[in-house]
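Exercise 7b. Backbone tokens:
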């Protein structure tokens, strides 16, 4: 089945007067400040112009909108930020790492209040910077606020369980969690607020000091929150880094002063950065990396459910999610029916501008992404596949209409490469060993989705797959949430585990104060606790 023309695609971009007043860019945001050591430093050097994926028609011509610009600082400014974080941590003696947890929580609650004041501005920038729909942008902001509250609650639980002494074999001790030091935090463009804060927030709450580098796409939306970071936390706790990653990050890693690297991005980049650290055994890494999650549609699957969940899994935010289903294995007996229904349901998806009600498909933020996706389609065609849905693969400026590609085989880019965009590769299979073999051989091991109704067959798939990936979804799309569930991956897909409670553990270490149970030592402990002489050694209970 060859795709037909999709004529309205050329009309996707609006004229200026068609943009609702509340979502217009009132003025460009030319950021000339960055946060270091509790101060908003002024920058008068080179800047990076931020162009929106949204084009606007002006006098009959399409013009990519300029959102603003931000500093392109150098390694010198990054080193200043590092020094500020090191001073604030002060080998664990600084104000923040020694602050009682209840007081840290108070600072974070103040930050939430300041953050919520910026919602409208941040949501609008999510639309204009990365093309996220209004509904998804609101959801990302609200989910992030909810995540912070959940993290605070989890930290209270962790602290409550630690607010007592343990006596074993004549030794009395108290076990609490202590910070690790200076954390370099780099988030992704696809969830520039939520995914970044799922590492940033627990790292801060556990008493670490932070170097925060915003993603290349989705940088300006963090600017409204810098003043809140400055005023809600002690100086040097949060410091921002701007500039090209390959220019400013290497010297930070080579310094040996980074204690934790947290990156959501490429496994290749993570490997390079870790190797730069001179004392790699002292470096903890919390990484969310590449993924090529597979969906397996069995011959007995409920096809309507499988199609519904597959569309959610492959095309939510245009397929630009690490948790997206990026390849589908469909039993040959149901492949034709599945493809027909998949194409019909894709055709119902609304495409347009992010602020349009009900929109599901929007422009892509990476300038070179449409060209790369078309390369993948050309490669697939050269090796025997076709685009089988109406209009699939049509491109207009930054917009790429979803393409269902069939039959995909091992010779194609789409079989192995993480396309990170709205292409759905479909592989027919006869034996279940084919998708299982694919997952075993894959460099990635994040998640898989199984669609079927035969409980025996599903059970037989679960047992081998849980030893290859970190989450097996049954009749449901691959996804991260709920945030209280562990989020990680095997192989090259992740290092460390993130969830509300797991993240707190990832950015801290269990530490013990202990002594022998003599009368003299008991008196010492009682004197310290009753006199509130130590912030660590305490039985204070946080409500």
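Sequence design result:
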């Amino acid at each position: 089945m060859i795709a037909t023309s999709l004529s309205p695609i050329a009309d996707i971009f609006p004229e200026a007067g068609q943009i609702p007043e509340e979502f217009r860019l009132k003025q460009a945001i030319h950021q000339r400040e960055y946060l270091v050591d509790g101060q908003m430093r002024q920058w008068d050097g080179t800047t990076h112009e931020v162009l929106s994926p949204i084009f606007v028609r002006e006098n009959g011509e399409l013009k990519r909108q300029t959102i603003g610009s931000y500093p392109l600082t150098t390694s010198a400014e990054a080193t200043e930020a590092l020094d500020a974080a090191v001073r604030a941590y002060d080998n664990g003696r600084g104000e923040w790492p020694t602050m009682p947890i209840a007081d840290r929580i108070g600072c974070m609650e103040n930050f939430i209040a300041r953050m919520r004041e910026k919602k409208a501005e941040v949501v609008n920038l999510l639309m204009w910077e990365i093309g996220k729909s209004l509904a998804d942008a609101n959801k990302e902001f609200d989910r992030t606020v909810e995540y912070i509250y959940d993290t605070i609650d989890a930290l209270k639980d962790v602290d409550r369980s630690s607010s007592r002494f343990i006596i074993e074999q004549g030794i009395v001790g108290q076990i609490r969690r202590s910070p690790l030091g200076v954390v370099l935090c780099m988030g992704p463009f696809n969830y520039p607020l939520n995914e970044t804060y799922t590492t940033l927030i627990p790292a801060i709450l556990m008493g670490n000091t932070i170097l925060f580098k915003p993603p290349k796409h989705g940088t300006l939306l963090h600017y409204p929150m810098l003043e809140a970071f400055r005023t809600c936390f002690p100086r040097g706790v949060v410091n921002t880094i701007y500039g090209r990653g390959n220019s400013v990050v290497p010297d930070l890693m080579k310094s040996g002063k980074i204690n934790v690297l947290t990156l959501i991005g490429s496994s290749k980049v993570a490997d390079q950065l870790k190797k730069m650290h001179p004392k790699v055994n002292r470096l903890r890494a919390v990484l969310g990396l590449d993924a090529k999650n597979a969906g397996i549609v069995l011959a007995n699957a409920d096809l309507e459910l499988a199609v519904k969940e597959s569309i959610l899994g492959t095309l939510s935010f245009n397929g630009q999610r690490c948790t997206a289903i990026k390849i589908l294995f469909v039993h040959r007996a149901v492949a034709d029916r599945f493809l027909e229904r998949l194409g019909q349901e894709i055709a119902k998806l609304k495409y347009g501008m992010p602020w349009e009600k009900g929109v599901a498909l929007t422009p892509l933020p990476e300038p070179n992404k449409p060209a790369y996706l078309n390369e993948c389609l050309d490669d697939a065609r050269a090796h025997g596949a076709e685009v089988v849905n109406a209009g699939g693969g049509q491109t207009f400026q930054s917009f790429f209409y979803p393409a269902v590609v069939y039959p995909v085989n091992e010779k194609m880019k789409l079989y192995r490469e993480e396309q990170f965009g709205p292409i759905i590769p479909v592989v027919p299979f006869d034996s279940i060993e084919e998708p299982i073999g694919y997952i075993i051989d894959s460099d990635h091991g994040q998640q898989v989705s199984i669609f079927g109704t035969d409980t025996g067959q599903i059970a037989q798939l679960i047992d081998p797959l849980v030893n290859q990936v970190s989450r097996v979804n049954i009749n449901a799309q691959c996804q991260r949430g709920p945030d209280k569930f562990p989020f990680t991956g095997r192989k090259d897909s992740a290092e460390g585990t993130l969830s509300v409670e797991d993240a707190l553990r990832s950015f801290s270490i269990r530490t013990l104060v202990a002594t022998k149970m003599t009368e003299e030592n008991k008196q010492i402990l009682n004197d310290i606790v009753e006199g509130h002489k130590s912030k660590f050694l305490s039985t204070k209970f946080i409500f």
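Instructor comment: The chain has two domains: 75-288, 293-490. The longest helix spans residues 134-162.
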